[in-house]
């Protein structure tokens, strides 16, 4: 499988040469150790991509010649994961798993039982998204929204076509809600923090239109539940 780098502007002219510089150039040259003649992928993270051939390598730069270009059409269903903020040391792992799952948007939620705190700003989270996107070869990088409180979360639920709250105390399974909701454009999956969402939070979310579901008998860590929930939704919606 070809490796991937992200650039802002994707060349479209076949044979055109683009130079990777900065962090991307250093990573391609010194970490990936690309060699002349190898093929490598480029993407702008918004669907555009190019297949390239390495024509020159230095310590911190890589020159690539465009062999093929294209555009990956986004899925019909856009999936948002609202993630209760987890402990700091698990935040990066949580982001990496959500990116690998194929989610379109990640919304950190400062829930009542959230113990951890996010780093100031979302720049570090965006870096984690890009690095995980390279690993999972994503041409569409998910958006990382600013953290929300519960009132803001309720607004997200009301604006979505369908929302599932993932909770160990739920009676129905994720797959029980499909194919009844197969024809939707936006799906929101709410993952509570370690310790779960409080009864008051669940009541408010269900009052806003969300449904309660469980992933299965084993109880997962909050930081691991998202990838399982997204996978279950993809399968239930027939997207996999």
Based on the model shown, name its key terms:
single chain; alpha/beta; Ribosomal Protein L25, Chain P; Alpha/beta knot; six-stranded parallel sheet; 25% strand
Walkthrough of the structure:
The protein is an alpha/beta fold and 240 residues long. It has 2 domains: 4-71, Hypothetical PUA domain-like, domain 1 (Ribosomal Protein L25, Chain P, Beta Barrel), CATH 2.40.240.20; 78-236, 3-Layer(aba) Sandwich (Alpha/beta knot). The chain is built from 6 helices and 11 strands. It has helices spanning 22-31, 88-101, 123-136, 150-159, 199-207, 222-236; strands at residues 4-6, 17-20, 39-43, 48-57, 62-71, 78-84, 105-109, 143-144, 162-166, 186-191, 211-213. The strands form 2 sheets. The chain has a 6-stranded parallel β-sheet with strand order 8-7-6-10-9-11, sandwiched between helices. Strands 1-3-4-5-2 form a 5-stranded mixed β-sheet. Helix 2 (88-101) packs across helix 3 (123-136). The two termini are 20 Å apart.
Task: Assign the CATH architecture of the largest domain.
Answer: 3-Layer(aba) Sandwich
Widest sheet: strand ordering:
8-7-6-10-9-11
Classify the helix fraction into a percent range. 25-40%
Please report the number of helical segments: 6
The CATH superfamily of the largest domain turns out to be SPOUT methyltransferase, trefoil knot domain
- What kind of sheet is the major sheet? 6 strands, parallel
CATH topology of the largest domain: Alpha/beta knot
CA distance, first residue to last residue: 20 Å
Protein structure class: alpha/beta
Instruction: Tell me the radius of gyration.
Output: 20 Å
State the domain count: 2
Residue runs with pLDDT of under 50 for 5 or more positions: none
Task: Specify the CATH class of the largest domain.
Answer: Alpha Beta
Order of helices and strands: EEHEEEEHEHEHEEHEH
Which percent range describes the beta-strand content? 25-35%
Mean of residue pLDDT values: 90
What's the number of extended β-strand segments?
11
Shape: elongated
